[in-house]
Amino acid sequence: MDLLKQFLLGSTKADHSSSEKQSEELKQESLEKKNAELKQEHNQLVELKQVHDQFLKKFSPGGFCNTCFREKMVLLGFSPLLIALLIVNFVSSRSLIKNVSMKSIVGVSVISNYMCCCEPRIDVVGYVTNGVWQQICKAKTEVTLNPDTAGPGLAVNVDDSLVKFTGEREAEWPSVLGREVFTSGRHYWEVEVGEKGYWAVGVSTHPGEKIIPEKPEEGYWLVRLSARGRKYEAVGKSLVTHPPPSLQESQSSLPLTLEHKLYKVGMYLNYWKGELSFYNIYDADNRYAMHTFKYNFTEVVYPVFSPGCHDKAPLKITRFDSTSNSPFRITI
Q1: Which residues pair with 225 in a beta bridge?
Q2: Spatial CA neighbour of 202 closest among 164, 238, 235
Q3: What is this structure's pTM?
Q4: Where is the B30.2/SPRY domain (predicted)?
Q5: What CATH number should be reported for the domain whose range is 126-330?
Q6: Which residue of 14, 30, 102, 284 is 20 to 30 Å from 91, comparing CA positions?
């Protein structure tokens, strides 16, 4: 009997010992798995921070490109939510990060609360960084002139890419519209102004007018050069981003000071966002934001161009896929 009790007791102890050992092994395995996950998450965060720091060094504070940063993070396998949180500086503690799944899928509507999708920041006057410029150039639009809308004394070449003044002076700013019209979306086009001392470019909502008023108000958003090449100004009755609104509400024109001489003008229209920005395209690697109009566009918008009436040098629309040497038509 004693032998049986000893056997049973020994067997129970052995089973208990075996169970404890298995439990410890499971705990150890779970701990190792958790440590591995934490290490992987830590490595991802380190990599994320390194890329983030690289982008901060590459882009200036005014030209940081959220879109480029987001695309890079997606390629690295990070979740959209984590990327959005980092960009807006919501990542402030480890407790926040650990609750965000690295593989979670978040709807676009959630992301849009944190960032502007595919949209460059254009409300900063000065040098435009490569990242911002790449986004703007994605909106390149081929614009051609509509000779049927040309004002008095203007000549448009046969392929509708150049306009110049050839007649006798009847008005200060005879103009011609672009054939393309904009009612939505994003559009970017360029005009070579060269050494001209007078010109005006921008957009208009007046399809029937062939002369830009000397003091345009409703329906015109322009940058122009006058006074024999000495006076750059933004012209139009709408709120602009610079200077602050309190300084502009009573004026329809605003003098512009440029760091570099202007030979080519870039125009970027975001119809949906209600913004029209002008750029000094100094050369292939240097471009500068000059001015941004803000306006809630609701009508059809037309590109508008005026070579002025004081010289016969042309305005030339940049063709992104070709060059032009066509002869001119004369408008009487």
Answers
A1: 199, 232
A2: 235
A3: 0.62
A4: 123-324
A5: 2.60.120.920
A6: 30
- Element spanning 126, H or E: strand 126-127
Q: Where are the domains of the chain?
A: 2-111, 126-330
| 83 touches 105 (CB < 8 A) | no
Q: Which residues, other chains included, contact 14 with Cβ-Cβ below 8 Å and sequence gap of 6+?
A: none
Judge contact between 301 and 178, C-beta under 8 A.
no
Reported as a single tens digit per residue, the pLDDT across 129-156 is 888 999 999 999 999 999 999 999 999 9
What are the tens digits of pLDDT across the range 206-251?
999 999 998 887 899 999 998 777 889 999 866 444 444 444 444 5
Q: Is 130 exposed, middle or buried (0-12, 13-18, 19+ CB in 10 A)?
A: middle
Backbone torsions φ then ψ of 59, nearest 5 degrees: -110, 140
Sheet with 302-306, side-by-side order of all strands: 176-177, 302-306, 199-204, 220-226, 231-235, 253-255
Contact status, residue 162 vs residue 305, Cβ threshold 8 Å: no
190 pairs with which residues across the strands? 266
Cβ count near 138 (within 10 Å):
12
